[in-house]
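Work Package 3 (structural annotation) set out to generate three-dimensional models for the target panel prioritized at the project kickoff. During this period the team completed the workflow that converts sequence records into discrete structure tokens, so that structures can be stored uniformly alongside our sequence database. As a representative example, we reproduce one entry of 398 residues exactly as it appears in the project archive.
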Amino acid sequence: MKILYLVHRLPYPPNKGDKVRSYHLLRHLVQQGHQVLLGSFIDDPEDWQHLPTLRTLCADLHVEGLSPRWAKLMSLNGLMRGEALGLRYYRNPKLQRWVDAQVQSGVDAILVFSSTMAQYALPHNRLPLLVDFVDMDSAKWRDYAPRHAWPLSWLYAREGRELLRFERLVAERARASYFVTDAECALFRAAAPESNERVQTLCNGVDAEFFDPALDLPNPYGPDELPIVFTGAMDYWPNVDAVQWFVAEMLPQLRQRHARLRFHIVGRAPSAAVQALAGEAVHVSGTVPDVRPYLRHAAAVVAPLRLARGIQNKVLEAMAMAQPVVAATSCVAAIDAVAGQELAPAERAEDYVAQLLAWLDAPGLAAEVGRAARERVLARYAWGAQLARLDRELEALA
């Protein structure tokens, strides 16, 4: 089929959560023999160098540059128009004209990644539309509101309301709407009951051949370190909140028992708040060429996310690297794994400390949990198996 694929952020390189999913979806479509016409944005100047790689995958490619600072300013126009600010943030007349031209020349279906990109597809209501919402973004903004002071609390609550209205419109128009977990599907069905029958789960996966602990990967840590690792984009507020919480509430207790312990924050674009955490007990890496060595040689991996939606790629990748992972209960609940045996849930700071100390005091137990974690990933989270649901929908269209 000839598929128009609209993604809010360039789906390459797959170095952060949304780009991992959007890239593997693109690669899977190409492997299945579809022609993919990709329309997307670049919000990181480093990504322009990757266009030649994407051109080898796509039958056509149209990319617009996006300045986050300017886009945020322009999105405020949404306050006067009575619409979600995220829609205005990603609105671009040149991309709309390209989409219109592709539809005019003939495509079989439109696949949208992230609800805000559906605005480009809605004018073409005769074409089959598939939407990968990934998470229920309106609920994310709603959850942010009580954790911030006014006026952000008001702005986030408003964004949640307006975006939900748009999400419902999109889901009602779509042939199928996908969310990353059953829990996220249930949440959306409760908010948009008119689309219940067309809402489906499409889980994340992991490339277990790439994230393989058997690979010969250099040790990035000092010889006397006992490294605990957190990975993720470090300009993303839930990640910033997670590492700040870990450093303030958990790290001092852990170092009382293990003075050699050092917390490594590994990920691109660390904010000023994250950089301020760096010191003797905390290392902030910034962008690294390959996250796998940091996972492979860690003593344990943590994901203390207090605001998390859906399946976290960072958790699946650490599990694939045979690492013991302690993560927020909400993250663990989203993964089909045996809690306590293949990864560990935690809610309070004391829970994280107790679990990490149990593993640090018994490395054999930690290794056993890591091995079980990788076996779970191999059995349940291969990308091909997860994307078979999308294949069935496309086959029905064909």
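The mean pLDDT is 95.
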